[in-house]
Structures are given as structure tokens and as C-alpha cells.
Structure to design on (637 residues):
């Protein structure tokens, strides 16, 4: 029997969050949890000397109110898919999964989950960003599942559903919900919308099993993407990061063949590829946090503030993977991070 | 205001290296249970030791608690040890009469009432004890007056002590939050009566099994990843010295070696051919380094 407490054994609640009805709804889902009142979420989330890897074994939930930073400009390490008004937000900090390559473990001092319950404030901020977007000829492209996996939380808090409905009302908004979740059923009963993109991150099984711990198997993700397509959702496939494990060319070739035997390439909205890259500071922390993984100990280079594969290696891999992907998906539908 | 007298000997700190084996409040019971012996080298702070366990007696109040904890962690030198834990065990008052005296709680939040500062242990492992928040006051409190303070509508029992915040604040300087615990035994309901030593001893004795079980639990830890053997460490140090590697290059070679060790689950470094190699200049050194890198990252 595991000696670890189950995740969400403890729920920390900001005083201010208690006045929001959503908070009580979330707490009700965990009737056995210890509920602990806190002042501001950083009292718990930003304690010194926390052990990210240990906390991943027993993640706690922090319900909080986000006061500022409700919309951020998109990072250069992320892909904008050609949309000039690229932004993202952080409705939840951290993720249920435990991927070796994830930048969150370098970015945050804790593996605990911070869930911001003041969703309406995020909507207000999104509306303001829509109004003030630099290029009015293009929608606000808002990634709402970057610092988390929002669909994975849908049974705890139905934010994907709420955002899809919000998007339906906002004509100049395009949202991306990036996920490794297979729990598409969580969106049952909601009509797909062309400006709500469900983006699945996919890796070959050999890579996923080794580096994407706690995440659903890639077979289940592909099955979920397949159902999403059948239901009429816009589906994006993110082969990102491509991890050059031994034999990667053949592994990815075979993986693409299997993927597109299930998913109709014509139905896919677009796809992205990119290699491992991470902010240099986050990467330094990652190496300390993941002594169990070989991933941070491969050969990387620092380019400006970013740590990534050496330039030539990066070009070789992305060119090869892109050419393999072009067998199924036209080039104009492939976004490449180099 | 009448006060509840906490005997100095009733606040005890266990500074544990590796495994907790027991704890102490009414000294005889716990010292016997843990097999601890008085450390006569410690003149000012009563200190008991046995195996990997040390027990310090702080006296009443958060200042005493903080100074004793910091002193013990610094001087006993366990803070840097893998698996070191610090546990505070002490008596507390409880505002809820529905919580019987003798109930042992694990603190999940500690508030220093005078400063408003809060501390949160990371409770990651199953422990089998009820949890509660603890308020640390500067002086003993009793029910009258206490009930008038806002409880924010919460229904959880409120535990009151005089040491937890001092202990936790000091321990947090040395240890991560998952290795610091406060165990509080309800001794009264803030009636303001002086503690009766014999009944308190009996209370403590009655929770011995729970205490012992908690203390036996190892500190939360993950399996150690495969590490380099001492031979390989020395070998790598030899290469580093022979090639006169720069600091950056030293980091690189360590990373490559670590990567190799992790990937191969602890296999010996395949670098025997570089034994004793020296370089006549930067160019040759860099070439050797590239060869080492190829060797370590290729396999």
C-alpha cells in the first residue's frame, strides 16, 4: 500500500476565494480533504525549500483569486500559428501530469495546483484584450491551457466548457485548449465551435511511456482526438517536443503512420512540431528536480535565454520530422518551432 | 486573566536523523521508550540522544522553541542529512470541548498570532492522525476572551499553544516543509487550570502508540537515482585535473557522466582509454573532451 496521501488530500483556500460560489462546488468534490484557510496563495505555493518531485506524489489543491496578470503576451518559445494577436492566460498553475520535459517544474516553486476561481475576471480581461489587440484584422488568439492541462481538470472545474461558451459569444476570439487528457467526455453536451481548438500533444508510445508520466497513454489521446473530430471539433496535433530517442526517425515514422491511420489527416486543422526548449533558468532547476531522468542531461545549447538542442541537430530533427509529417499534412498546415 | 501553566519539560523537540524511533514529553516514559540518554555535553539545553535520534527540551514559549530548534539543528548537524526530520511534540489547549483531552493532532497550519505569520507543513504521507490548525500565542490563553475572537465561521477545532510557530520558523531555515511536523496533544479546553502532572503523564502515555507510529515513519523520499560509483568519481576527477578543464568544461563532463549513469542505470563510465591523458594545448584538450562527450552520450 502506498504511503503517499492521495492528491488533493489537502485543499488550501484563500479567504477571498470563499466568497465565490465555484469554490464551494470544487471543495464538495473532495469530501475527505482537509480544507485549510490561507491568506494569499503564495503563502503555500511559494514556500521555500519545497520539493517539486515529492509533491508530485501528493499534489495539493490551492483555490485562489488572481488579481493581476489575467492575460499575458505569448512566449517566443510557443507557437503563434500565424496569429499576430497571440496571448495566453493562466487559469490554473501546474498540471496533473508529470512530464520530464515540462517547463512548469522549472518555473514554479511547487508542484501543487493553484486553481483561480475568479473566472469572470479572466473573461473581463479577455474582452479588454480583444478590444485592444494590435491587429484588428485578426482575432485574439488565446491559449488557455499552457501552464496547465485544462481538459484534465474539467471534472473538477468545467473551465473548458465555460471558455468555449464564452468564445461562442466573442466573435474576435480564438482559443486553443492544449491537452494530453483523454477525457473528452467531459465536454459532452457542448456544441463544438470553429474558434475553439482542441490541441492534443502526442508522442510515440516509447517516448510517452518514458517521459510523460501520469498522462493518459498516447493511444487514448488519439482515440479522444478521433472522437473529437467525429463530433466536429477543430483538432490540432502537437508533436512537441520531438524527443530524439535512439532510433527516433523510425519511431516517429511508424508513429505518424499509426496516428494517421486513426485520424483523418484531412480533418486535422493543423499540426505543430518542435524540439525541447526551455528558459535557461527553468532548465537549471529542472536538472536538480529530475535526477531520475536522462532528458535534462542530453546535449543542449543555450541560445539567448533559451536552452535547446544544438542548432544543427535541431534543424536536422525538425527537417526530418517535418518531411515525415508532410506525407500526411500539407506544409501550410504545419507550424515548426526552430 | 488566569493562565495555564505549561511546564518547561513539556515542550520537547525531536531532531531525527534517518528514522524517527519515538518521542518524549513526560520524560521517563518517552526516554525509556526511545532508549535515549542524557547528553552531558549539552549544558544549557537538556539534550537526550540515542542512535539517530536527538531530543531537546526547550522550555516554554516560542522564543525558547526557536532558539532550541535552531541550536539543535545547527549543532547536532543533522539538517544536511538525507531523511532528517524535525518533530515538535507538545501539549495544547483546544477551544472545542467535543475534542477530548488526550487527542493527538498533526498541525496542518501554524499561525503566530502576534505577528500573523503562517507556516504550512507539507503533509505528503498517510499518518493516521486527525489534523488541525494551531495558533501560537505569546502567553497562555483561556476560554474567556478567546471565544470572542473571530473564527471566520469555521467549525474546525482551534488548537492553542505557545511554541509551534517558533519551532517551525526555526526548523524551516534548515529543513524543507515536508520534513517538519508539529504534533499537539490536547491537554485542556482553555479552562485556565494548572496542569496536573500525573494526569498529563497519563495522557501522554496513552498516545504513545500513535506517537511512536508517526515517528517510525520515514521522511518522504523518492528512490535514489543511480549514482556514479566512488571509483568513477575519482576517475573523473583525475581526467578533470589532467586535462586542466575549465569550470564550464567541468560542468559539462559532469553532466555527460551523469547522463550516462542515469541512462545506463549506473554502469561504469566507459572512459578507461582516457586514463592519464594530458593535453598540450587548448586544441588538443578540446578534442579529447569531444571524444569523451561522444563516448558518454553515444551509448
Amino acid at each position: 500500500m502506498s504511503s503517499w496521501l492521495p492528491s488533493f488530500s489537502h485543499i488550501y483556500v484563500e479567504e477571498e476565494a470563499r466568497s465565490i460560489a465555484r469554490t464551494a462546488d470544487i471543495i464538495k468534490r473532495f469530501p475527505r480533504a482537509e480544507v485549510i484557510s490561507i491568506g494569499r496563495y503564495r503563502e503555500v505555493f511559494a514556500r521555500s525549500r519545497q520539493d517539486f518531485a515529492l509533491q508530485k506524489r501528493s499534489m495539493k489543491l490551492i483555490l485562489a483569486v488572481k488579481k493581476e496578470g489575467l492575460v499575458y503576451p505569448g512566449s517566443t518559445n510557443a507557437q503563434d500559428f500565424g496569429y499576430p494577436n497571440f496571448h495566453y492566460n493562466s487559469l490554473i498553475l501546474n498540471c496533473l501530469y508529470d512530464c520530464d520535459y515540462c517547463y512548469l517544474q522549472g518555473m514554479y516553486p511547487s508542484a501543487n495546483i493553484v486553481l483561480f476561481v475568479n473566472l469572470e475576471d479572466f473573461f473581463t480581461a479577455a474582452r479588454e484584450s480583444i478590444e485592444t489587440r494590435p491587429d484588428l484584422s485578426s482575432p485574439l488568439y488565446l491559449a488557455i491551457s499552457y501552464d496547465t492541462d485544462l481538459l484534465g481538470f474539467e471534472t473538477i472545474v468545467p473551465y473548458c466548457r465555460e471558455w468555449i461558451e464564452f468564445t461562442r459569444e466573442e466573435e474576435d476570439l480564438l482559443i486553443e485548449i492544449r491537452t494530453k487528457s483523454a477525457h473528452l467526455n467531459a465536454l459532452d453536451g457542448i456544441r463544438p465551435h470553429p474558434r475553439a481548438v482542441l490541441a492534443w500533444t502526442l508522442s510515440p508510445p516509447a517516448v510517452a511511456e518514458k517521459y510523460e508520466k501520469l498522462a493518459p497513454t498516447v493511444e487514448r489521446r488519439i482515440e479522444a482526438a478521433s472522437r473529437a473530430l467525429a463530433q466536429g471539433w477543430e483538432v490540432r496535433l502537437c508533436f512537441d517536443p520531438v524527443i530524439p530517442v535512439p532510433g527516433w526517425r523510425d519511431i516517429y515514422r511508424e508513429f505518424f503512420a499509426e496516428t494517421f491511420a486513426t485520424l483523418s489527416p484531412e480533418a486535422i486543422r493543423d499540426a505543430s512540431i518542435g524540439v525541447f526548449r526551455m528558459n535557461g533558468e527553468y532548465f537549471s532547476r529542472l536538472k536538480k528536480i529530475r535526477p531520475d531522468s536522462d532528458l535534462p542531461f542530453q546535449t543542449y545549447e543555450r541560445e539567448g535565454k533559451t536552452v535547446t538542442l544544438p542548432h544543427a541537430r535541431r534543424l536536422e530533427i525538425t527537417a526530418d520530422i517535418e518531411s515525415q509529417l508532410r506525407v500526411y499534412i500539407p506544409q501550410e498546415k504545419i507550424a515548426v518551432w526552430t | 486573566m488566569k493562565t495555564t501553566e505549561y511546564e518547561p519539560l513539556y515542550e520537547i523537540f525531536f531532531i531525527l536523523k534517518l528514522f524517527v524511533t519515538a518521542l518524549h514529553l513526560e520524560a521517563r516514559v518517552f526516554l525509556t521508550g526511545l532508549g535515549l540518554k542524557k547528553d552531558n555535553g549539552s549544558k544549557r539545553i537538556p539534550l537526550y540522544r540515542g542512535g539517530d535520534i536527538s531530543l531537546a527540551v526547550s522550555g516554554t514559549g516560542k522564543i525558547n522553541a526557536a532558539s532550541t530548534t535552531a541550536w539543535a539543528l545547527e549543532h547536532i548537524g543533522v539538517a544536511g542529512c538525507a531523511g532528517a526530520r524535525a518533530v515538535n511534540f507538545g501539549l495544547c489547549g483546544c477551544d472545542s470541548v467535543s475534542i477530548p483531552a488526550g487527542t493527538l493532532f498533526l498541525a496542518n497550519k501554524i499561525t503566530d498570532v502576534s505577528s500573523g505569520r503562517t507556516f504550512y507543513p507539507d503533509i505528503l504521507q498517510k499518518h493516521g492522525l486527525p489534523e488541525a490548525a494551531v495558533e501560537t500565542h505569546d502567553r497562555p490563553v483561556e476560554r474567556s476572551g478567546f471565544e470572542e475572537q473571530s473564527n471566520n465561521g469555521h467549525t474546525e477545532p482551534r488548537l492553542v499553544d505557545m511554541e509551534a510557530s517558533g519551532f517551525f520558523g526555526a526548523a524551516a531555515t534548515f529543513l524543507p516543509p515536508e520534513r517538519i511536523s508539529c504534533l499537539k496533544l490536547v491537554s485542556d479546553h482553555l479552562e485556565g487550570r494548572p496542569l496536573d502532572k500525573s494526569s498529563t503523564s497519563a495522557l501522554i502515555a496513552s498516545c504513545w502508540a500513535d506517537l511512536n507510529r508517526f515517528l517510525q515513519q520515514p521522511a518522504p523520499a523518492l528512490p535514489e537515482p543511480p549514482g556514479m560509483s566512488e571509483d568513477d568519481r575519482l576517475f573523473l576527477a583525475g581526467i578533470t585535473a589532467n586535462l586542466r578543464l575549465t569550470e564550464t568544461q567541468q560542468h559539462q563532463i559532469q553532466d555527460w557522466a551523469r547522463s550516462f549513469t542515469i541512462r545506463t542505470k549506473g554502469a561504469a563510465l566507459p572512459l578507461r582509454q582516457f586514463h592519464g591523458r594530458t593535453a598540450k594545448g587548448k586544441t588538443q584538450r578540446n578534442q579529447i573532451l569531444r571524444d569523451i562527450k561522444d563516448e558518454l552520450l553515444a551509448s
